[in-house]
Design brief:
Elements (H helix, E strand, L loop, with lengths): L2 H13 L9 E2 L2 E2 L2 H4 L4 E2 L1 H7 L2 H11 L7 H17 L2 E7 L11 E3 L1 E8 L2 E8 L3 H5 E2 L19 E5 L5 E5 L5 E11 L8 H22 L12 E15 H4 L3 H6 L24 H16 L4 E6 L5 E6 L2 E2 H21 L2 E4 L13 E9 L16 H24 L21 E2 L2 H12 L19 E3 L9 E3 L10 E3 L4 E3 L9 H26 L7 H15 L11 H10 L7 H5 L5 H10 L4 H54 L5 H31 L5 H29 L10 H6 L2
Parallel strand pairs: 4-11, 18-21
Antiparallel strand pairs: 1-2, 3-10, 4-5, 6-7, 8-9, 9-11, 10-11, 12-14, 12-15, 12-16, 12-17, 13-14, 17-22, 19-20, 21-22
Helix pairs in contact: 4-5, 7-14, 10-11, 12-14, 12-15, 13-15, 14-15, 19-20, 19-21, 20-21
Protein name: Glutamine synthetase
GO molecular function: glutamine synthetase activity
Family: Belongs to the glutamine synthetase family.
Length: 755
């Protein structure tokens, strides 16, 4: 790594030609999005065209949970999807699954099979393309090398991937114009234990659906002609934030390549302080990358809707239309993969780390979560009069109870070494789990608790609030009046109600959303059980609960959950103090967050619901603690290498240059005071770096001696991270003082602007 390589790469970024991709055409015109959407997905519509009607009907019953798929059905589907895939250039298939690594895994197998026959005493081999039902239903990857938290030994290698029939198969582009058939799957051990993220998500979705149905059955229909609800599912819209930087400059930053974030680097004079990047004009090169990415995602049936610049320079966001949560999780992982691959084609690098650059806005993955019925009803829709919409209010207080009882558990679900730089003391949303309702909905809850009418905000009168909003007159004749929502948005809240859903804003951009959604589903299911039990007692022998019954239960839970409702600035110090008074946990580090998985209140709930077995939950705790410790260790060792092999040598070279210059000036009879002053300013900083490196090396030596996983994670947080920050602080000062031609790594100003 040298300053020359940095200068050359910066010059190349300016002269590099952009990538040109032709948009799909049809009859001489660009195709509409609806025409290419889902063309690489083996959807139910495609299945209905290719399967015999009895087979298709049997499959529909199976995915609804009414039947177990049989061999005849599996073989028929396997044959149909093989033909469909091979018509589109597929040569291989893979069971695509989600190990506990925040990413996906796959093992490719070709459709090739050899058939041997004997003719005239000679063996003749024939090549065939086959894909059987048994190959579709399950595969057997090596389970020993994936995180298992002690559930599996290295010599116990057998594990199974099993087709998730509710998630459609799809095609991804392969090399040389070929493609690969992806079969979404769960991943379990030989004994049936969940080794992945998806199995527990599916379990949590089922227990939440069952708990919701139990409550709905007790409430009865809203009207005589209302269609009976048969199924409930969660919906999810996952806003994905990310950074895009030049790939050439990225290749010169070992910290970015190894850890995903910059371990060194100071802010340039201009970054995000003018607030001009957010929703600004998308740079041409970025827009080209986004457009190609969207085109691929449309073909894969991913309903991406929104793209825009985010707050920080070089930061962007992509957001989809809401879908059933289990599909939305798969689609988010596909989105991250496509972003990664397409960015490379444009000589860009996508960064999903929550805080790749110190001092500017970090990236989140805002999860917009709700519950919907098979009749099309959103159970979190307040309607025009939420104060009398008791069905909505029962589900609302159930969710608030989930936060009140298991806020620490939800905090564990969003904890990671990378997200730790956003949460808690570093950046919003904070490490305190609270909910934002908005002034009007907050008053609905307060009015029920206090048995009073609703307020009219800005007036001393009282009457019912219409959640549909008010009208704003802009006082400009050429502009129409606009509808205004009665609830403003709170961008500081980790869990905010936004009209007809909750936005879980604290999830990290790098994370798979499976685990946090699993914990949220489970906590809400547990709360629904409590609400349903109380409502059952309240209604007595009546077939359905009355309005008075529901109001009484709602009032009880409004009081019990009031502590988690906060309408103010979650970033403020005053909220930290207020939360402490309310008894809300303020968990600002990962080891403390992961410990919440072992809290009896949380572990008992997850065991009783059947979402995690005892061994599965313990292994999850072990995996998270170990990964956190390893992430910090890798960062510490990377920083040490950068300082010793790059930063200190460049400082020595510059000091030598200053000293030689001062000597030459002195020999020539000129004043060398400026050079000597610069040398005096730099020298103590270089010494400080050497001292800090020594402390970091000593801490690493002690770190590797620790065997207990909890102590290891604590040492990573309390020792390694602290010494890293100290070393960085000195190096970042040095960056401002060293001559630019000597500095080996691309600076923030170059990483932000060369896109």
């Amino acid at each position: 790594m040298s300053a020359d390589a940095r200068s050359t790469t910066i010059a190349e970024t300016i002269s590099r030609e952009g990538r040109n991709v032709e948009y799909p055409q049809k009859n001489g015109r660009p195709q509409w999005i609806s025409e290419i959407f889902g063309q690489n997905v083996f959807s139910l519509k495609e299945m209905s065209k290719r399967l015999p009607k009895p087979i298709y009907s049997t499959f529909l019953k199976q995915i609804r949970g009414n039947e177990i798929i049989d061999k005849t059905t599996a073989d028929a589907i396997a044959h149909a999807v093989k033909v469909w895939a091979m018509e589109r250039g597929a040569t291989h298939f893979t069971h695509w699954f989600q190990p506990q690594t925040d990413s996906t895994a796959e093992k490719h197998d070709s459709f090739l099979t050899l058939k041997c026959t004997f003719r005239g005493g000679y063996e003749e081999t024939t090549a065939l393309d086959t894909f059987s039902g048994s190959q579709l239903l399950q595969s057997e990857p090596d389970a020993s090398s994936f995180p298992s938290g002690g559930m599996r030994s290295t010599f116990e290698a057998r594990g199974y991937t099993v087709w998730d029939t509710k998630s459609p198969m799809f095609l991804q582009e392969g090399p040389h114009g070929t493609s690969i058939l992806y079969v979404p799957s769960v991943f379990i051990s030989y004994n049936g234990e969940a080794l992945d993220e998806k199995t527990v998500l599916l379990r949590s979705s089922e227990v939440l659906a069952k708990a919701t149905m139990e409550l709905l059955d007790m409430l009865g229909p809203k009207s005589e002609d209302e269609e009976r609800v048969k199924h409930v599912h969660t919906t999810l819209g996952t806003e994905q934030e990310y950074f895009l930087i030049d790939r050439g400059l990225y290749s010169l930053r070992p910290d970015l390549k190894i850890t995903g974030r910059t371990l060194l680097g100071g802010l340039p004079p201009r970054h995000q302080q003018l607030e001009d990047h957010y929703f600004g004009k998308i740079p041409t090169r970025i827009l080209a990358c986004m457009s190609e990415c969207e085109m691929e995602l449309y073909k894969l049936g991913v309903p991406v809707k929104t793209r825009h610049n985010e707050v920080a320079p070089a930061q962007f966001e992509l957001a989809p239309i809401f879908e059933e949560a289990m599909i939305a999780v798969d689609h988010n992982l596909i989105t991250m993969d496509v972003l990664h691959r397409v960015a490379h084609r444009h000589k860009l690098k996508v960064l999903f780390h929550e805080k790749p650059f110190k001092g500017v806005n970090g990236s989140g993955k805002h999860c917009n979560w709700s519950m919907s019925t098979d009749t099309g009803e959103n159970l979190l829709e307040p309607t025009a009069h939420p104060e009398t919409n008791y069905r909505f209010l029962l589900f609302l207080v159930s969710i608030l109870k989930a936060l009140a009882d298991h806020g620490g558990l939800l905090r564990a679900g969003i904890a990671s070494a990378s997200n730790e730089h956003r949460l808690g003391a570093h950046e919003a949303p904070p490490g305190i789990i609270s909910a934002f309702m908005g002034d009007h909905l907050d008053d609905v809850l307060n009015s029920i608790e206090e048995d009073r009418p609703l307020k009219v905000f800005g007036s001393s009168q009282f009457h019912s609030v219409r959640v549909g909003g008010t009208v704003l007159d802009l006082k400009v004749a050429s502009l129409p009046n606009i509808a205004r929502d009665l609830t403003d948005r709170n961008r500081t809240s980790p869990f905010a109600f936004t009209g007809n859903k909750f936005e879980f804003r604290a999830v990290g951009s790098k994370q798979s959303v499976s685990f946090p959604m699993t914990l949220l589903n489970s906590a809400v299911a547990s709360s629904l059980h409590s609400v349903t039990a109380d409502l059952k007692k309240q209604k007595g022998d009546k077939k359905f609960a009355s309005d008075d019954d529901m109001r009484a239960v709602i009032k009880k839970y409004i009081k019990e959950t009031k502590k988690v409702r906060f309408e103010g600035d979650n970033y403020s110090d005053s909220w930290v103090q207020e939360a402490k008074k309310r008894g809300l946990p303020n968990i600002d580090n990962c080891p403390d967050a992961f410990a919440q998985l072992q809290e009896k209140r949380n572990s008992s709930m997850l065991h009783e619901l059947g979402v995690f077995s005892e061994s599965e939950l313990h292994s999850r705790y072990h995996i998270l603690m170990e990964k956190y410790a390893k992430d910090i260790q890798i960062e510490a060792e990377t920083l040490r290498t950068m300082l010793v092999q790059h930063i200190l040598p460049c400082a020595f070279n510059y000091r030598r240059e200053l000293a030689e210059g001062a000597n030459l000036l002195k020999t020539a009879g000129s004043d060398s005071t400026p050079e000597l002053n610069a040398l005096k300013e730099i020298s103590p900083i270089v010494a400080n770096i050497q001292t800090a490196v020594g402390k970091l090396e000593a801490a690493l030596d002690e770190f590797i001696k620790i065997e207990d996983i909890a102590q290891l994670a604590k040492a990573a947080h309390d020792s390694l991270a602290v010494h890293m920050e100290e070393a960085r602080s000195h190096a970042d000062v040095l960056e401002r003082l060293i001559a630019n031609k000597h500095w080996p790594f691309p600076k923030y100003s170059e990483l932000f602007l060369n896109i």
